[in-house]
């Protein structure tokens, strides 16, 4: 692997794991968890009080379904991202260790894996 390839792959992996988009996805994930807890509590409470709120219960079940769908979608997006970051991040061909952000600098300086010392960059 050339130095340029190494730098561009590490930068691409880095760019993929950052950004506002993932902040928004995380907010959705968190909101669905909180909303689901509240909805389950309200549903339980409505059964506990034996109130005649059938329409409200159906609406809450629909909302709960939407929360589950959004939660699943956000989780799926995080899994896809994790897989892509893993594919992009450079791995040592000898010990299969990922070149982490911490060891990236030393690998760039020496061209070698910080773990086993095998050649990662260059011939
Ligand atoms: Zn190694």
Describe the overall structure:
The protein has helices spanning 3-17, 20-48, 54-88, 101-110. It has a domain at 17-89. Helices cover 72% and strands 0% of the residues. The chain is built from four helices and no strands. The longest helix is centred in the middle third of the chain and has 35 residues, at 54-88. The protein has 123 residues and is an all-alpha fold. The structure holds zinc ion. Zinc ion is lined by residues 92, 94-95, 97, 113, 115-116, 118.
Structural topology:
Layout: H1 3-17, H2 20-48, H3 54-88, H4 101-110
Helix pairs in contact: 1-3, 2-3
Bound molecules: zinc ion.
The site of zinc ion has 8 residues, from loops.
Provide a compact summary of the structure.
The protein contains 4 helices and no strands. The chain is mainly alpha-helical.
């Amino acid at each position: 692997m050339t130095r340029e390839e190494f730098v561009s792959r590490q930068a691409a992996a880095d760019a993929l794991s950052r950004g506002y988009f993932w902040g928004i996805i995380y907010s959705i994930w968190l909101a669905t968890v909180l909303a689901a807890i509240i909805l389950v509590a309200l549903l339980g409470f409505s059964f506990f009080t034996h109130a005649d709120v059938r329409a409200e219960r159906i609406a809450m079940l629909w909302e709960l379904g939407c929360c589950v769908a959004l939660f699943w979608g956000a989780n799926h997006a995080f899994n896809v991202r994790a897989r892509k970051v893993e594919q992009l991040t450079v791995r040592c061909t000898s010990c299969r260790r990922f070149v982490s952000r911490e060891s990236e600098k030393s690998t760039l300086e020496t061209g070698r894996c910080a773990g086993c010392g095998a050649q990662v960059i260059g011939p």
